[in-house]
Design goal:
The protein has 224 residues and is an all-alpha fold. The protein has one domain. It contains 7 helices and no strands. Helix 1 packs across helix 3, helix 1 crosses helix 7 and helix 3 runs parallel beside helix 7. The radius of gyration is 19 Å and the shape is globular. The protein starts with 5 loop residues before the first helix and ends with a helix.
């Protein structure tokens, strides 16, 4: 009777687990993006005001903490939908500004949306097909995101400095592209086995990528 090689069995189990995490991550990502789009559309239809920077940050980091805390339970799913729904509500007023105050706002929004989709799909496909390990980006991304976040806070108080806003948006685009590569690589190589955490990372990457692209397009191609 042939015996199964233990090393082969472990490798096969690892591949199956990785594929499971990938499937669950992309399925949950699709659902959260759809839900976020729904809440954004609801916010636009109701013409809800933007909650402001402070409430947005409190809501974002608070819900992000809860997602992380309950990552291994059903509550983790509840809080990830709460987070993505909340982010959709904050996005709605921003989109309304472009659609009502910028002559070619609809074109800018669709271009940003298409660009975001192309970047995400392209980078994900690259990481999945080449199976390169991008774990070396972890430290650089953490430091870069911290710097970009602080720069974004400074830019809020300096609205008359378009150069700073351009730099911040460009930084976020590069960093979010790197984060997509990093997170996808972590799933492929077994560094991330929790699909809830993987989903929230990819969602945040896509959200920031879209808003940053939209801001850059508004600065360079907006028809006031």
């Amino acid at each position: 009777m042939n015996q199964i090689n233990p090393a082969y069995a472990r490798a096969s189990a690892g591949v199956l687990e990785t594929n499971k995490v990938l499937r669950n991550t992309y399925a949950l990502l699709a659902m959260t993006l759809t839900f976020s789009a729904f809440t954004a559309g609801l916010s636009m239809a109701l013409e809800l005001p933007h909650p402001g920077v402070i409430l947005t940050l409190i809501g974002y980091f608070g819900l992000l903490f809860l997602v992380s805390k309950f990552q291994n339970s059903v509550l983790g799913l509840v809080f990830i939908f709460a987070l993505t729904g909340f982010m959709g509500l904050t996005l709605g007023p921003i989109l309304n500004v472009y659609l009502t105050h910028v002559g070619n706002g609809a074109q800018l929004v669709m271009t940003a949306l298409g660009g975001t989709g192309a970047i995400f799909l392209g980078l994900s496909a690259y990481a999945l097909t080449t199976r390169k390990n991008f774990s070396f980006l972890g430290g650089m991304l953490t430091a870069g995101i911290l710097v970009a976040f602080l720069a974004a806070l400074v830019a809020l108080f300096l609205p008359d400095m378009p150069g700073l806003h351009i730099a911040v948006s460009a930084m976020f685009i590069v960093l979010m592209a790197g984060l997509i590569l990093y997170q996808t690589s972590e799933i492929v190589h077994g560094g991330e086995s929790n699909y809830i955490l993987a989903t929230v990372t990819l969602y945040v990457s896509i959200f920031n990528l879209f808003t940053s692209l939209l801001q850059l397009l508004g600065i360079f191609g907006g028809d006031e």
